[in-house]
Amino acid sequence: MKVKHWVFASLIGIMSLSACSENISNKGDNLFSEEKYEEAVKEYDNVLKNNPKYLKGLYNRGRSYEELGDFKKAEKDFLAAYAIDGKNTQVMMSLSNIYQKQKNHTSALLFADYAVQVPGAPAMAFFLKGRALHQIGNTGEAMIEYSTAIKMDKNFGQAYYYRGMLKIATDKKKSGCEDIRAAIKLGHEEAQVAMDKYCK
What is the C-alpha to C-alpha distance for residues 83 and 160, in angstroms, rounded to an integer? Predict the structure, then answer.
């Protein structure tokens, strides 16, 4: 199971990263919001020519590349943003996500682990750590991280879904199906398919 676009759609979008105090307005954010990612990249290029260490510009250009499927360029921008602010949880989570997409689960786990260690880290950081652990086969710790994400955010449909699927895969079908039902109620797009397949 892959970490899909929906994982970060509600989380990231166009963001004002906390480490960036500049208020540089440009067309890039609007173009990104309109899903005009190639045009957004060009606008961020213009901004970064004059300010190559502009964190928000680097990060959002990386997000644009990610939406275009150019994961290597996205990774490069996220790493540049990380070099500027090595304590930015959002950047760490994006690195974890982009490495998951490239099936580099060890690096995905590394950056998710960095993210969860930052005070005030969001539920998504724990979810991403769970996904990386799940992918490398560490099911026990993955279960803990999914449960932590759910404890932090009772409406986290993705975490219920993946915890449920992990429970089903490890012979905890009854409890797993309860998680799948919770994911359905929270509108997770794949949960009904899982319910029909595994929880009859």
Answer: 33
pTM above 0.85, yes or no: yes
149 close to 168: Cβ distance less than 8 angstroms: no
Is residue 134 assigned to a domain? Answer: no
CATH number for the domain that contains residue 26 = 1.25.40.10
Q: Which residues of 38-76 are buried (b: 16+ CB within 10 A; e: fewer)?
A: ebbbebbeebbeeeeebbbbbbbbbbbbbbeeebebbbb
What angle (nearest 5°) sits at the alpha carbon of residue 150, between those of residues 89 and 125? 15
Domain of residue 20: give its range.
Answer: 6-122
| Residue 125 and residue 115 in contact, taking contact as beta carbons nearer than 8 Å | yes
CA pair distance 145, 139, nearest whole angstrom:
10
> Worst-scoring range by mean pLDDT, 21-25, 36-40, 73-77, 195-199?
21-25
Torsion sign over Cα 139, 142, 144, 147: negative
pLDDT of the residue at 5:
39
Q: What is the pLDDT of residues 15-67, one digit of tens each?
A: 544 333 344 446 899 999 999 999 999 999 999 998 999 999 999 999 999 99
